[in-house]
Specification:
GO molecular function (chains A, B): DNA binding
CATH topology of chain A: Arc Repressor Mutant, subunit A
Domain HTH hxlR-type (chains A, B): 9-109
CATH architecture of chain A: Orthogonal Bundle
Protein name (chains A, B): Transcriptional regulator
Order of helices and strands of chain A: HHHHEEHHHH
InterPro entries (chains A, B): HTH_HxlR, WH-like_DNA-bd_sf, WH_DNA-bd_sf
Largest sheet of chain A: 2 strands, antiparallel
Keywords (chains A, B): DNA-binding, Transcription, Transcription regulation
Oligomer: homodimer
Chain lengths: 177, 177
DNA sequence: CAATCCGATTGCATTTTGCAATCAGTTGCA
DNA sequence: TGCAACTGATTGCAAAATGCAATCGGATTG
């Protein structure tokens, strides 16, 4: 995962950022799953990332300017990862990727609820969601009127159940062994 | 490059299709550069793909349903590769990827002309371009009125000069050695 | 008939990945 | 106080993917 430049083409450079099997998965879990800690990303990843790869990618994404890291005041050893504006603006790409996958790939219905919501909401919904992310990760003022259901809430509801089930499975396997 | 499924999440499945360093580069050169032959992809790739990797990826993209291969009537040994509808609908993703890269990455101005055009044209332009691709690769009837400049022509003009320069460089290095 | 072009394939060194075990420091609870 | 559980990682090692150069047999061109 070296950061060399093969060419100055925008698509190529984008690929050099997340043209690997894990970077975008991590960003997906942070953006849509609300993960902020190492252990959350490790244990609640549907795809089961290895801890060394996760550590490496977090470091790399920080070097590239997509993430920042800060101490969690509640725990001296905890680190809290935040999305930068650079990462937040990946939302439209994620939405397109999800929409394409939903059409052409053997997606699980449960897991494509998020992609469906993003697709139906279109760019206005993406913008609202990005604002919410800016509020959570960059401390920007919230533009959502109080009482309004956030995009985040809508996105997570169904998904969390699946992820939780998966995490439970993994815990069982671990205790059996 | 095995085709296993880590999860049924649309974003994950999409990543398993082109979450590597080369698949999307090849598709980019076919979609925007009009490459149809092995040698074209090999010698006119800005990034310099190796022939074994190219062969492997073409095979893989065919297995995944993104490309088809046919004999070129003009030459018994030539194979002509075509985009499927599945690949053509990647245009919006490519456009988003290019737009994002243009904002956040150190793109070369020359090489970002394409991304800029796609961005300015927006979804209507993407649609027109996709129709042109369907015409060229799937034999669909052309919807573009005769005499109208195609998106393809606009996209290629500036880019080809850069690629040609690069190919010339490579030829020089080869003859020197 | 020789040089060149065609889509690949082979062999080999290097890099990346996946997996399990482990680390030292921190915290919660009895 | 003591100890288990949890924190973000790191290490060692085998397997897989990649990059590179050389090469293949057949087809075409001059």
């Amino acid at each position: 995962m070296n950061i060399d430049r093969r060419s100055g083409c925008p698509i190529n450079l984008s690929l050099e950022v997340f043209g690997d099997r894990w970077s975008l998965i991590i960003l997906r879990d942070m953006i849509f799953g609300g993960r902020r800690h190492f252990r959350e990303l490790l244990n609640f990843s549907l795809e089961g990332i290895a801890s060394n790869i996760l550590a490496d990618r977090l470091k790399r994404l920080m070097a590239l300017g997509l993430l920042t890291k800060a101490d969690d005041p509640s725990h001296k050893q905890k680190a809290i990862y935040s999305l930068t504006e650079m990462a937040i603006t990946l939302v439209p790409i994620m939405a397109q990727l999800g929409a394409w996958g939903r059409v052409w790939l053997p997606v699980t219905e449960e897991l494509s609820i998020r992609a469906e919501l993003l697709e139906k909401g279109g760019p206005p919904l993406w913008e609202q969601f990005m604002d919410e992310l800016r509020h959570e990760h960059l401390g920007a003022p919230s533009r959502t009127p109080p009482g309004t259901p956030t995009v985040r809430q809508q996105l997570r509801a169904a998904y969390e159940a699946v992820v939780e089930r998966k995490a439970e499975e993994l815990r069982l396997i671990k205790t059996e062994a």
